[in-house]
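[09:14] KT: can someone run the structure on this one? pasting the chain below
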Amino acid sequence: MSRKILFLFDVDGTLTAPRAVITNKMLDFLKDLSKKTTFGIVGGSDEKKIVEQLDGSTDLATYLFSENGLVAKHGKTLIGKTSIVEKLGNDKLQDFINFCLSYMSEMKLPCKRGTFIEFRNGMINVCPVGRACSLEERKEFFEFDKVHKLREKFVLALKNKFPDLGMKYSIGGQISFDCFPIGWDKTYCLQYIEKEFDEIYFYGDKTYVDGNDYEIYNDSRVQGRTVTGPDDTISQVTADLQRLGI
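[09:31] RB: done, structure tokens below
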């Protein structure tokens, strides 16, 4: 009896360049992959953003886990949805958001744009430069942050301010970081698939400590792969397909 295998992909830095739209090369690769085996997508962004990045091609995937799997779909069917409001309550969330806004008001950056706090079903996304920044401003902040470690310092401040809130902080992409209850990282999606498959292969670029792929990459239920970008993803998946005889 053949083993059931699932390939699971991060989005930013794995299937696409950060916040960029999927290339025709990757799209063709996923179309071919869908004919050979089952695959899923797990991203920190909400479903709308993931669909936009993948140019509407998410229907190629058997599973779509947005917001780390807090919103889970099998095909077009919703199989799970969890809310951070139900977990923490509005009072605690408001204290948390107020602190973030106050902290960011004191930050001096190359520029500031709009949407500094993005509320999602399963997390709070904090973006010091503002998610309305242009691609050029995004790159500028990313380089600035690499030198000054602004997001790392911000996360440390939150840990010190809210030591008992039970929150996890994950720095992903180029301009923001995610805040969510402990255990609500990308491993959250595994509850929907761990009993359905004999082997799960995960591909992601932020597999280092505090990266948003770290927990699932190191989870015993998956075989993790660190990729450096879409081309490397294609290369590593191709190698795994050949090794598995798919």
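[09:33] KT: thanks! The first strand starts at residue 5 and ends at 9.
[09:34] RB: yep, looked fine to me
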